[in-house]
């Protein structure tokens, strides 16, 4: 009898080989093809079954197209659906496209999990992204990750948004030194609004260093202490 790890390894081989696959999924503008199995997909999401039941052309032809998606992120989502986990290590796809940058990997997988309504995957993405921010908040991709998360996540209680806001509160003094972060504060109304609300909920702090920050979301001005 196969052990638990051996059982999952068998499913991983099934993903890589696409043996007995019965659905094709195309991601990104280059239409990178992934072969998958309806039986496995339907365990995690109702998306593909619904397309079949409602008579959509994609469901009838067993071909699905996501031109705006990110192929590397979808591959990680497939890894999760086949094995219950996904790798954060850089992977190589046949199209030769470079993998997503460090702080964009988990948010992009999360966007796919949100599309297919896979709660377990969303929780895993949020946990890994939150852990990653502890040491990677200074990364050049921090601002990009904020923009991406706030463009793909619609819930203010989203764990990734909370992690971004908490990290910004912790490292505000250092982050505010960067022009791209200042531009983010001024240009992203949802982010600046949620940051302002978090600062107001926290209450005033004593200190001599800080700056008035205008919130495009609610129109108020909040003093942010950098002490």
SSE inventory with pairings:
Layout: H1 4-17, E1 23-27, E2 32-36, H2 38-44, H3 47-53, H4 57-61, E3 63-66, H5 71-83, H6 105-116, H7 119-136, H8 142-152, H9 159-170, H10 172-175, H11 179-187, H12 189-202, E4 210-214, E5 221-225
Parallel strand pairs: 1-3
Antiparallel strand pairs: 1-2, 4-5
Features:
single chain; 227 residues; mainly alpha; two-stranded antiparallel ribbon; 12 helices; 5 strands; elongated
Q: How would you characterize this protein structure?
A:
The chain has 227 residues and is mainly alpha-helical. Helices cover 56% and strands 11% of the residues. The chain contains 12 helices and 5 strands. The protein has helices spanning 4-17, 38-44, 47-53, 57-61, 71-83, 105-116, 119-136, 142-152, 159-170, 172-175, 179-187, 189-202; strands at 23-27, 32-36, 63-66, 210-214, 221-225. The strands form 2 sheets. Strands 2-1-3 form a 3-stranded mixed β-sheet. Strands 4-5 form a two-stranded antiparallel ribbon. Strand 4 (210-214) and strand 5 (221-225) form a beta hairpin. Helix 1 (4-17) runs antiparallel to helix 5 and helix 9 crosses helix 12. It is elongated and about 60 Å long. The protein starts with a helix and ends with a strand. The mean pLDDT is 85.
């Amino acid at each position: 009898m196969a052990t638990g790890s051996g059982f999952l390894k068998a499913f991983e081989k099934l993903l890589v080989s696409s043996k007995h696959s019965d659905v094709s999924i195309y991601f990104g503008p280059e239409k990178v093809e992934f072969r998958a199995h309806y039986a496995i997909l339907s365990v995690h999401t109702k998306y593909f079954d619904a397309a079949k039941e409602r008579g959509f052309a994609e469901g009838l032809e067993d071909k699905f197209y996501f031109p705006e998606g990110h192929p590397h992120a979808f591959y990680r989502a497939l890894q999760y659906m086949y094995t219950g986990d996904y790798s954060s290590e850089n992977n190589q796809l046949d199209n030769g496209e470079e993998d997503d940058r460090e702080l964009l990997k988990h948010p992009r997988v999360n966007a796919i999990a949100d599309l297919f309504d896979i709660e377990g995957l969303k929780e895993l993405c949020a946990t890994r992204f939150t852990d990653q921010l502890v040491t990677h908040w200074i990364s050049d991709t921090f601002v990009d990750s904020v923009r991406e998360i706030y463009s793909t996540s619609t819930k203010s209680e989203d764990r990734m948004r909370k992690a971004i806001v908490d990290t910004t509160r912790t490292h505000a003094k250092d982050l505010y030194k960067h022009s791209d972060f200042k531009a983010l504060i001024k240009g992203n109304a949802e982010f600046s609004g949620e940051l302002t609300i978090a600062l107001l909920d926290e209450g005033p702090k004593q200190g001599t260093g800080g700056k008035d920050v205008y919130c495009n979301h609610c129109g108020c001005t909040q003093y942010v202490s950098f002490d």
